[in-house]
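Section handout, structural biology tutorial.
Before the tutorial, make sure you can parse a SMILES string by hand: atoms, branches in parentheses, ring closures as digits. In the record below the ligand is copper (II) ion, and the chain has 312 residues. In the tutorial you will relate the predicted structure tokens back to the input. Do not try to memorize them.
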Amino acid sequence: MPDRRADQDGAASRGAWWFGVLLLALLLASLASFFVAARVWWLPVRASEQAPMVDGILDALFVIGLVFFVAAQVFLAVPLMRRRAAAGPFVPPPLTRMPGIGAIIAVLVLVIADATVLALSERDWFRMFSPPPADALRIEVVGRQFMWQFRYPGPDGRFGRTNLRFVTSGNPFGMDPDDPANAQNVVTVNEMHVVVGRPVVLQITALDVIHSFNLPNFRLKQDAVPGRPVTVWTTPDRAGTYEITCAQLCGVGHYTMRGIVVVQSPGAFAAWMASQRAAIPPAGKPGAIASGLRAAAPAGHEASAGAASAAK
Ligand SMILES: [Cu+2]
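Predicted structure of the complex:
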């Protein structure tokens, strides 16, 4: 029987060698596909001063993950390929009470990797939610099925009074019709304008279900929760028109919940704001918003805007 045993061992070590080669080939193929994907499907162009810090965290995560992934695959493949027929079957070493130096190093490496990611993300989190600069442009954002609505203050920088009892589908901010300041507030649908280089403070909430206000180019994503306004700020630093999406599955029309953010020069922004103010009817009641809504809302929303007009 010794010859047959030797044959079996030889076949087993050849099988192990090929398995090790397969693992290394898979490793190379996945690394190559990563670099192809990174060139073709990577994140869209950055358009805010805060975007590089978010990308920095992503890069750190990828590098740490890459090191562990490559190390784990090599650690598996190399012993397989070096397996000798004479080595006999693998027998795991007995468990001892004290961890070996290798285990301690592994735990330390994991703790350091975790601490690095935590430190980076905490630093950027606090920066994102720190008090905004005083000269920031203030915008209120309300998400609803299935659109984003924005409110800008009047020329004096004031937002009119709001109250929950005025909230209707045509008046999502609950603007009080008796407050003259509301007559100067500009409300837009699925279109937000900001100024390049000027910080913008977004107060984000929702009217019906939880949405998520997502500006991919700004690397800004914030849940919009009914009854719980959250304030974040960012500084657009690249002129252009970028996408706004909802990043939280919020109903059958979720995919239609898209808009644009226009980053423009101070002059272009002032001209746009003037055109918006000029479009407010002299009566200046929030009912005007309902008519504006009807013009801007996608098909299927006429009914709700009409209901709001009737209610006023
Ligand atoms: Cu949504």
